[in-house]
Amino acid sequence: MGDRLKGKIAVVTGAASGVGKQDALLFAREGARVVLTDVNEEAGREVAAQIGDAALFVRHDISSETGWNDVFGAAQTTFGTPDVLVNNAAVLLLGSIEDTTLEQWQRVLRINAEGYFLGCRAAVKAMKEKGGSIVNMSSVAALGGLGMFCAYSASKGAVTAMTRAIAAHCKQQGYKVRCNTIHPDGILTPMTAPFFGAAEETRDALTQSVDPHGRMCLPEDIANLVLFLASDESRFINGSEYRIDNAQMIMGIA
């Protein structure tokens, strides 16, 4: 189509790889100007270079309040007030309730929950006059729980509940700002590959067809839904939760 985000300005975190990278590339193809952020400066700048003049890279730790001010300031200076925020950056640490340390718990919550709070707060402040869309990446872990990812499940649960609160607040205040969550089961990305042993042949098989028994999808599968929620096509969707899990959760299989 090529113009589903024509004229829009988007901020995408964690855009150096995985889902964030695919979001940024797809947004640009659909007419958006994109501010890419990540702690991986080298890879982030490479993605921005692929896009060209419609992209700006900002090195960004999402758990930093001043970092968020810098991102939205750079976006405003270079392109204008953002219309879209995709909170995508996150960390995934293995650990059940019995073996997760307090330090690990605090690190995961600081990045995955507090980082998203800071981003949403900055986005609502920037968008409340003109309107916009916030897309928060959550997980099926927020809905069903994953025993071996205690802190991660908790952080994504916080994101999901916060998203509903933001949607309700913006509606009550009369802001044209929508806020929704996406809940994948598993995505083949550099972050998840070490945990699931995702081989290259697995990715190739998924690229060709969807395994009816499979639990892992590709970043592109997520990016297509992110695009829809970022666009005006979803203008009446607010405070909603979208699962991308190949029916895994409703089957009740851990």
From the structure above, extract its key features:
single chain; 254 residues; alpha/beta; Rossmann fold; seven-stranded parallel beta sheet; two-stranded parallel sheet; 9 helices
Structural notes for this entry:
- The protein is an alpha/beta fold and 254 residues long.
- It has one domain: NAD(P)-binding Rossmann-like Domain (Rossmann fold), CATH 3.40.50.
- The chain has 9 helices and 9 strands.
- Strands 3-2-1-4-5-6-9 form a 7-stranded parallel sheet, sandwiched between helices. Strands 7-8 form a two-stranded parallel sheet.
- Helix 1 packs parallel to helix 2.
- The longest helix has 26 residues.
- Belongs to the short-chain dehydrogenases/reductases (SDR) family.
- GO terms for molecular function: glucose 1-dehydrogenase [NAD(P)+] activity.
- Its EC number is 1.1.1.51, 1.1.1.47.
- It holds the Pfam family adh_short_C2.
Quaternary structure annotation? single chain
In CATH terms, what is the architecture? Answer: 3-Layer(aba) Sandwich
Number of folding domains? 1
Number of helices: 9
Q: Regarding CATH, which class?
A: Alpha Beta
Backbone CA Rg? 17 Å
The backbone outline, from C-alpha atoms, is globular
CATH homologous group name: NAD(P)-binding Rossmann-like Domain
N-to-C terminal Cα separation, in Å? 38 Å
Main beta sheet, described?
Answer: 7 strands, parallel
Q: Residue-averaged pLDDT, rounded? A: 91
Low-confidence stretches: none
Family: Belongs to the short-chain dehydrogenases/reductases (SDR) family.
GO molecular function, one term: glucose 1-dehydrogenase [NAD(P)+] activity
Protein name: 3(Or 17)beta-hydroxysteroid dehydrogenase
Pfam family, one: adh_short_C2
